[in-house]
Structure formats: C-alpha cells, structure tokens
Amino acid sequence: MSRLLFEKHSQNRASWLPELDGSEKEALKKIPQELLRKKEPSLPSLSELDVVRHFTGLSQKNFCVDANFYPLGSCTMKYNPKALDSIAASTAFSQIHPYQDEGDVQGALRVLYETQELLSEITGMDEFTLQPAAGAHGEFCGLLMASAYHRANKQKKTQVLIPDSAHGTNPASAALCGYEVVQVLTNAKGHVDVNDLKKKLSDRTACLMMTNPNTLGLFEEEILEIAQAVHRAGGLLYYDGANMNALVGICRPGDMGFDIVHINLHKTFAVPHGSGGPGSGPVGVKKELIPFLPRPRILKESGRFTFEKNAPRSIGKLRSYYGNFGAIIRSYAYIKALGKEGLSAVSENAILNANYLKARLKKMFDVSHEGFCMHEFVLSARTQKKKGVKALDIAKRLLDFGVYAPTIYFPLIVEEALMVEPTETESKETLDAFVKILEDIEKEIDQDPQKVLDAPHTTPVFRIDEVQAARHPNLRFRSS
Amino acid sequence: MDYISNTNADKAEMLKVIGARSFADLISNIPSSLKKVELKISPGISELELDRHMDEIGHANKNFKYSVSYLGAGNYDHFFPAVVDRLALRGEFITAYTPYQGEASQGTLQTMYEYQSLICELTAMDASNASMYDGASSLAEAALLALRSGERKKILIPVTIHPEYREVVRTYLSFLDAEIVEIPMKNCVADLEALSKAAGEDVAAILVQQPNFFGALEDTQRIGEIAKKSGALFVACVNPVSLGVLAPPGEYGADIAVGEGQPLGNPVSYGGPHFGFFTVKDALLRKIPGRISGMTVDKIGRRAFVLTLQAREQHIRREKATSNICTNQALCALKGAIYVSLLGKEGIKKLALLNVSKARKTHDRLLKIKGVHPVSNAPFFNEFALRIDKDTQKLKENLKKNNILGPLALENFYPEMKSTYLFAVTEKRTDADLGALAAAIEDTP
Amino acid sequence: MTDLSNLRFAPTHEWVSLNGKIATVGISDHAQKEISDVVFIELPKPGRVLKQKESAMIVESVKAAFDIYAPLSGRVTEVNEKLKDHPELVNQSPTADGWLYRMECSDPKEFDSLLSAHDYDGVKESSH
Questions:
Q1: Do residue B286 and residue C42 have CB atoms under 8 angstroms apart?
Q2: B210 found inside a domain
Q3: Using a CB-CB distance cutoff of 8 angstroms, which residues of chain A are in contact with residue B403?
Q4: Which chains does A contact via 3+ CB–CB distances below 8 A?
Q5: Do both B378 and B394 map to the same domain?
Q6: Which of B11, B13, B41, B400 to mutate: most A Cβ within 10 Å?
Q7: If one looks up domain A82-337 in CATH, what number appears?
Q8: Best to test chain C binding among B316, B318, B319, B322 (most C CBs inside 10 Å)
Q9: Is the residue at B55 inside a domain?
Q10: SS3 B339
C-alpha cells in the first residue's frame, strides 16, 4: 500500500535552518495571546533522506513526456527542452522581485516586452498581455475585454456563441462575464455550420468563440466568411489558441479576422505541463482593444522598458504582479532558439506526423472525417464498441504498453472519440510503434477482449473506483 | 535549434503513406491569401548562443541573491533547501500531464492529496483543492463562491488588503450583479466600527488579509464575530509561513481560507508562477472550485488516488461550473508540499519564530534612528511600515549604494502615505544586513 | 418493483405520485440507468417555489451533472434526507426509496397533463 507522508516517521529538526538565539521569546510577547496559534499543526516528521525517498518513489509511478509517448489531442505534449528549465531557474531570473525599481529589472522587462512582440508577430495581433496564468484565465481575460469594449461603445450584448465542439472552459468563462451561451452547430463536414451561425448571430452577440483548426483537427475553411458575418453583426471574433501548434508559421489568426486571441504557452510554446500547471495564457488583441488590456502594460520608451502609468479603460488585473514569468521566459527562449524556420518546422512536422498516423490508423478505426487533417484528428471506436470494447478500455490498455492514452470522449459530438495529437517532436519510429501497439490491441479485442476490458494490468494501481471517491470524498489525511 | 526527430527520409516515406505529393498538399484547403505570411522573426540560434543571449539579458537584472532585499508585499525572500528543486524538477513531475488517467499518475495524485492535507493542517481548515493560480485570484474565487451561494450581493473588503488583490477581486466581479464595499482603515488595520456598520444582511462575504498589506495583524477574532452575526461568509487571506506561530483561520471561525503560496518553496521569479491555496470548512465542500485529488481504492482494493468531485468542473458543468478554472499550479503546489515536509512540525515553528524575531529586531533598531517614526502600533509578523522623514531621493541612493533592495515606498499604492515604507524581514536577514540598512538610513540627511 | 400505475411521468424522465395536494417526485428507472452510478444529489431547499419544467435540482454521476426538472408547479415541503449519505438509493430504488422531494402543488390540474406509465414507456427512448 502506498504510504502517505503522515504515515512515516523519522527525525526532523529542520537543521537546514539556523537555530533560534532566544530573542524570539521577547519578540513573541509583542503579539497578543489571542492572535497566537493554540494547537500546533500535525505536520509529518521525516528526515531529509526519507523525504527524498518518498517523493522519488512517487515520481516513479508517473508517466511523463520524458519517458512516454503522449498522443493527447488538444494538449500538445511536445518535448520540453531542458535548456528552458535552466534559464528559468537561473539566479538572474528567479531571484528578482516584482516591485524592484524598473531600472533594476530591465532584463526581466525586456523578456516580457519582446515576448509580447514575438507572440504578436506569430499570431498577427497588435499587442499582447502576458498576465493570465492559464488558458482558461486567458479566456476570461478576453471575454472581460470584449465586455468592456462593448460597454464603452454603449452596446448591450448578452450572448456568446460557441460551437458545440468547443472545449469546456469556453461556456464556463462566458458565464463568468454574465453572458448567455448559444451553441452553434457543426455541419457534416466537421466545420462550423455557417448558415446556423448566421441564424444565431444578432445585435445581442458579444462574440463568437472558436478555435482553428477546430477540435476535430480540421481547418475552418470558411473562416473569412465567418469573420465577416460576426463583424457585420457587431460582434467580436475570439480565438481559442489551444490548436495553435498547427498554424505556427503557416497562417495567423489575426489575418483571419480574429479580434482577440489566447495562446497556451504550455502547449504550443513548450512550457512543461508540470503535472497540471503552471501554464500561461497570454492574450493578444487588435488595436481597438488595447485600451482595455489588463494593467500594467509594458512599454518601450527611448530604448528603456517601463510600465504604463495610467490606463483608465483597462479591465483591471486578473492576478497579482505581471504573469507567470518563469513560464513566459521559457517560451521566449524557445521562440528565440527556434527562430523563423524552426517555428515553421513545428507546424509542418506536427501536421505531417498527424496525417501519417491517421493514414495508418484508418483501417482500424472509424475516422470522424475523411481527408487530410491538421495537427490532430479524431477517431471513433464505434466498431470496437459493437464488439464490446469502448474507447475507455482501449485507453487503459495502452497504458500497459507504456503509451499514455489519446484524449477520450472529446469532442462530445463524436461517438467513442479518441483524439490523437502526436506533435512535431516525435519520430516516425515512435509513431510506427504506436500503430503496432494498437494493432495488437485490436487482435486482443477479437481474441481475448477481457484483457482489454480489465486493463490496465501493469500500472501501480488498476482501474480506480471513482464512484466511491465521489460518493464518500476523502480529500485529506486526518490524524484521527 | 530544432527538436524535430524525423529525418528527411522519414518525411518522404510518410508523405508516400499519406498519399500526398508534398507538404503543401496537406494544407491546400487553407485560403492562399492567408498562407502568404512571412514571419518577421530572426533566424534560430544554437543552445550555445541562446545561453549567451540570456546571460546578457540576465545581467541587466539586479537580483537579491547578491543584494539584500527588504521587499515583501506578497512575495518574500525566503530560503529554500536544495532538495525542493531537486525533487520537484524531476522529469517525472515536470513533464507529466494533468492526472486524468489516474492509473498512470499515482505519483502526482498522491502528492496532490498530501499537499491538500498539509495545507489543511496549516490553516486548520477541513478541505482544500489542489491549488489555484495565486493568492489574489484565490481571494477573488472565494468572493465568487460567496456570491453563488445565495441572494446576497455585497462583498466587504478592507483597504488594508493588498491593493492588487483588491483590484483582482474587482475585475473578477466587474460584470456580475455584485457590489464591493471598501472598509476604511485606522492605525493600519481595518476600522472595526465601520466594518460592523456595513455588515448587514445583504453581505455575502467579509474578506480580511492576515497579516495585512502593511504587515499588521488584524483582530480576526472580532471580525469573525461580526461576520457570524450578519450571516456573511468569513474569508481570510493568510501568509502560510506565519501560521507556524499565528492563529490559523480555522481557529478564528473562517469559512474560507485562501492565500499566496509563494513563501512555501517557490522562487519569487519576478512574480510568478506561484500558487494560491483555497481551503474551506466541510459545509462548503461541494462548492470548492478547481481540481481535487481524493483517496479511494482500485478494483482489487488497493489504496489509490483519483481526481474527484469533477462534476463541479468546467469540462462537465460547462456554463454551470463552480468556476472556469481548468488547471491548478501542480508543480508549484508540489514544491510547497516538499518544502513543508522538510520543515516538519518543529521547522514551521522555528521558521516563523526566526521571522518574528528578526523583524522585531529590525523594527526596534530602525526606530532608534532620528527621523524614523512608527505609523501604527499594531502587532506584526515579519513585515511593518515606518515613516522616514528624510530626503527621498538621497535615501534611495544610499540604499542602492549599500546594495539594498527596497523597502517598498507605500506612496505608490496609498498616495496619502508619503515617506512611508514597507519593510519585510525574513529568516535570511543577518545582523550585518541590519547594520548596513540602519547605516544607509542614518547617513541620509 | 413498485406499482407504477399511480405514477405520472414528465417527458424529462421525472415521475410524480400525487396524494391530495402533496406530490412526491423522483426520476425514472430509465433515467437512473442513463445517469449510471449516482454519486451526489443536490436537493432543493424546503420552501423553494418551483415552476413546472424549471430545473429544480442536480444529480451528479462521476463524469456528469444532470438537471432534474420540476414536473409540477408548487412549493418544496420535504426532501429525502437519506440521499445525503446514500445517493445510491436513486439507482437501487428509483421509484420507491430513491424518491427525491415532496412538494405542495399549486395547480394539481398539471398532473393530468403528464404522461401515464404506458405513454412514458413509448416516448422515453426518444427524448433526453
């Protein structure tokens, strides 16, 4: 049984801190009794060696990109270059305080400013804010700016249009801004149904939130027409940048007519996923929206970097300080290192790898749509379901072969969906091995389906009782 | 630099299998007008050149490893033992994905559960999520939770709460049907008379920061009573290191306790990434935003951990979700958990006391200087404000000459507080540091 | 299995049994099968006034949350407290021990507009 920190005991006098010299007794007297802690926290007591063993052992139970292939659609699990980790952790960038005088942190401000410029160039937007801490945070930021923009123009907007294939954060973010969500249908070709869109557009539309390519991995070919329709209705066009990995260097959302763009640095721009964060969700806008950007903006004046002092129409702040600097600097370094050709190579190879896998997997699985895809594609395990094995079972069996499963059951509009995104950093060899594994699983479905239904068999734990976890939540250790 | 693994031969072979003549075929459906773009970005560079480039930029930063910092205001210069980064930056943690497939993520899920447990112990609250973006947004999320809970629409916010945090709360609430009422301060703490008057039956939540922005300690017991009387939720935003010696929110009746987790093992890094913690009493368990790891069993009865209570979250409830938050700040919370483990029961107390004694020593020594005056007689933890009636520009120069960063000029946040500075003193500050600081101030005319 | 002949059904899969002015509400066997393992139930507060077809409460499974609609208009008088610790009752006995809440109807005539068990059987596959 995996033991918790609290269930282990050894000596810990925190000798990595200097000893107290007795002066704390007098100092403590200056704090009223009632403000002092009565009951000590029941923290574990473990020696340094035991702490190291504990966490090292836990780390060894994880899958990770460094060790495993992760064809997770919509997540862009590309290789995280180690050079970026070193840069972010270096003293020059990690031991600086956000309230130091501008003159003392020109290096940090330069990184922020130049990242804003680079992202603007890559996406075809006019200016970026690096403040949002994640994609969902960026969405919220974008919608707040849209709201502020409409309010400043004295327009009463109450609805946000979202395709039915969209990611879950979109509707949740819209609700936070007080908007009603209206769904736009996807047509049989897998694209936004432009006729349905035009029917649902009105003078109440604040914006249409979409991604391109969409969650089916298909480029929205009618995007220019969509942009025109939305603008004519007085709405803004918002780009969810989750799928930016397909477009880098090929085309830009700004050129398509998007007014607001959010980018996930932990997807396209190589910031590691960190087991679930920290990420970073910068937001880019066209110039009409610049006055509404969160404050403070970072400007360059006479060769010097500085914070904007007055921004009366800014939406305010979404978090303390300026953004996830440690993540941003990684992406800055990544973009500098790749340069123009390197950036183009990202999308080219991402699209090539995805199409190769799609071509090879077509025989085994139903594909959501025929033809070429962009950086990801969606399969349906419909045929396998008829034999009694679902997408979930296949995902679990893949774990036994050391491959993290593709995204399952998303997008919601495809039955038994498996969304596959190999990314550009994987080799053909890895892709071929993945195909072979799926072929082996397919054989098992025919000859020994129970093996798939009972999977995984080789992971530290087998299928987990999620029902019990939700019915009787045990969310922390209690020392009886 | 490039990180592409495929050879040209591989690519040619792949195109053949796909049935395309060239890469251009694969994107032929993109309107040609869009594909005409040529990025105006300089060519790529090698890792060697990148290293040099970043070094050059880094030199333009003055860092506090080689200067003495008295800056705080939410991010503090604490010492973290080497073990924290060694463990947290292991590839198995840093390049792992969100633990949706529980069987492949037991390491992450257990550390999340342990983090949740540790934070609950520190704050004396019942349940915690797996972390949020930062202290400011956690405070805003607490306000959102209070507003979602019923008909009440007012949030009371003392001006002694960090100005950026107050701004974030305002931004989060800007398009919702809600009203923010600011409570004035007296003696650098919340004016309890004003708070009591404003605490009516239309108040959804009363927020307080402990220690507050000025480092001063609020009368949290009394504020808790005011909240209880009016039926409002009591939200405390606290410094986690202070909980080694100060009463935790659970002991003074807070319904929700949030705060900035940076002091727990996370480098300041110019303001981020860090994590915000979010804890509640059991009654609010189902309303907690963000990810949560729960303990359960696998199908043969072995202990296992899994993301749970997911039906609250954005990817399921969509527009009815408890929040739009998708990610947590897993790696930052992990550093926090490792750091707190290294502190242990004795260490958290020792750490807090080192901060208390050094701050008190610094405070008392500086008050001996002519021209230095207190602005409040409120008790404090490791941060305090002082008025220094000296030439502002010359003071700045003297501090710089002595390689000192800070203290923070409060006039930038509270325009009426001229010549007033905020000093943060952590366990890292030595007697020599104090000597240099005192000299720099004394020598200023 | 409970005698369903006294129950009426809404096309949204709720059942109602009427006793004078007091209606007992639950979800059908078909609904609980669709939801699968119920993990949490957010019951309406006693005293709450509901309009027919309004979302009255939520039933959660591990992966989804489902709106449960008011089959009639009225005021909530009582909720099934047992469901707090035993949400699985809704799966095990949806039309008996797994009842959700009771309400005092403001317009008992609405009951007649609901489907009989037989008619519900016919439509249940098509909706939802």
A1: yes
A2: yes
A3: none
A4: B, C
A5: yes
A6: B41
A7: 3.40.640.10
A8: B316
A9: no
A10: helix
- Both B123 and B87 in one domain: the answer is yes
Scanning every residue of chain A, which has its alpha carbon at the shortest distance from the alpha carbon of C84? Answer: A471
Query: Cα distance from A446 to chain B (closest Cα, Å)?
Result: 24
Q: Could you write out the DSSP letters of every residue in B3-25? A: -----HHHHHHHHHHHT-SSHHH
CB contact under 8 A, C40 and A470: yes
Q: What CATH number corresponds to the domain at position B283? A: 3.40.640.10
Cis peptide before B415 (omega within 30 of 0): no
Whether chain A has a CB inside 8 Å of the CB on B318: the answer is yes
A404/chain B closest Cα distance in angstroms: 8
Please say whether the beta carbons of B349 and B108 come within 8 A. Answer: no
Structural domain span for residue B207 = 82-340
Q: Of the given ranges (A286-295, B45-54, B231-240, C65-74), which has the lowest mean pLDDT?
A: C65-74
Q: Does B230 lie in the same domain as B245?
A: yes
The count of other CB atoms within 10 Å of the CB of residue B183 is: 24
| B320 and B349 in a common domain | no
CA distance B224 to B207: 10
Same domain? B165 vs B278:
yes
Is there a single domain that holds both residue B350 and residue B336? no
Q: Tell me whether residues B345 and A31 touch, CB distance under 8 A.
A: no
Gap from A124 CA to chain B (nearest CA, Å): 9
Domain boundary among B284, B306, B340: B340
Non-local (6+) Cβ contacts of B221 within 8 A are A34, B252, B253
Give the whole-angstrom CA distance, residue B367 versus residue B379.
15
Interval A423-448 mean pLDDT: 97
Does B379 reside within a domain?
yes
B76 shares its domain with B172: no
CB contact, 8 Å: B15 with chain A?
yes
pLDDT tens readout for residues B123-157: 999 999 999 999 999 999 999 999 988 889 999 99
Query: Considering the domain boundaries, does residue B39 fall inside one?
Result: no
Number of domains present in the structure of chain B: 2
Q: Does C65 touch chain B (CB under 8 A)?
A: yes
- Considering only the beta carbons, identify the residue of B61, B113, B338 that sits closest to A105: B61
Q: Across the interface, do C62 and B286 touch by the CB < 8 Å criterion?
A: no
Residues B240 and B352 in one domain: no
The whole-angstrom distance between A466's CA and the closest CA on chain C is 7
Q: Which helix (H) or strand (E) holds A120?
A: helix A106-123
Q: Which residues of B touch A70 (CB under 8 A)?
A: 97
In chain A, residues under CATH classification 3.40.640.10 are: 82-337
Among residues B321, B340, B359, the one where a domain terminates is: B340
Number of C-alpha atoms within 13 angstroms, CB side, residue A14? 25
Residue in B29, B104, B163 with CA at minimum distance from that of residue A369: B29
- Check which CATH number belongs to the domain holding B436 and give it: 3.90.1150.10
- Asked whether the beta carbons of residue A249 and residue B39 sit closer than 8 angstroms, the reply is yes
Dist CA B278 CA B39 (whole Å): 43
Q: Is the pTM higher than 0.90?
A: yes
Q: pLDDT tens per residue, chain B (445 residues)? A: 999 999 999 999 999 999 999 999 999 999 999 999 999 999 999 999 999 999 999 999 999 989 999 999 999 999 999 999 999 999 999 999 999 999 999 999 999 999 999 999 999 999 999 999 999 999 999 999 999 888 899 999 999 999 999 999 999 999 888 999 999 999 999 999 999 999 999 999 999 999 999 999 999 999 999 999 999 999 999 999 999 999 999 999 999 999 999 999 999 999 999 999 999 999 999 889 889 999 999 999 999 999 998 876 644 555 455 566 657 899 999 999 999 999 999 999 999 999 999 999 999 999 999 999 999 999 999 999 999 999 999 999 999 999 999 899 999 999 999 999 999 999 999 999 999 999 999 999 9
Of A46, A320, A459, the CB nearest to B74: A320
